[in-house]
Here is the input.
Amino acid sequence: MFDINIMALSGQLLIGLINGSFYALLSLGLAIIFGLLNIINFTQGAMYMLGAFVAWFGLDLVGLDYWAALVVAPVLVGVVGMLVQRFLLRPIANENHLYSLLLTIGLAMIIQGFFTHLYGSSGLPYAMPEALKGGFRLPFMYLPMYRAWVVVAALVVCFATWWVIEKTRLGAYLRAGTENPQLMQAFGINVPLIVTATFGFGVALAAFAGVMAAPIYSVSPEMGANLLIVVFAIVVIGGMGSIAGAILAGLLMGVIEGLTKYFYPEASSTVIFLVMVLVLMLKPAGLFGKEA
Here is the structure.
């Protein structure tokens, strides 16, 4: 029998839920790009890092506060993503998918290497907003206000994104434009613009997560690379291209990781990959994916 310390267990669950929030945002962006555009985007971790660096640059150079950075960083990084899609990925859109995979891997390594050359691998501190300092004293734990904000904000953004894609006319245009582009173009819809904007939105989600992560984990060129493989595993668990699956699997894997850190810390870095292997053996399409 385990001798359970409720406060320690609650703390690990909170850490797991926070990590799960970042996993959900990053996985959601990957699922949108793959599910709607059929592109495996290995720059997602680099875009997450870029979002954090935009917030850090904004604060250091022009005094851009945290709340403004939550808007500015996703917009700027989203524009970078749109340029990547338009000038690098679109010319090879009709080639084998391996080309776009290798291109995004190479681009991610270039971005990370550039920032590592300039700032090294150590983290740069980013101040927590004054309004979110402090916390709540609960009967079983102390809940920092900023951590609570991260979870709530991630859930709101994830749910809003799912609702727009699955329940609105805009989402229907997005799905139709990628499933049957010739028909949509016949109706006067600018399909290339939809594809570019969708890619930009997917990487903007990563930048939003990067800004929220900056006060917790600091800003580092390697912060995205450390998450990318884990996030890809989570996308596989949820189901490649499944929007709801990416969100739910991200949150679930964060909680499972937190529980593992409490009960068996040695396995906490591998438990997500173990779950991925089990899911692929039992349900190759993922928990929420559709069989081919």
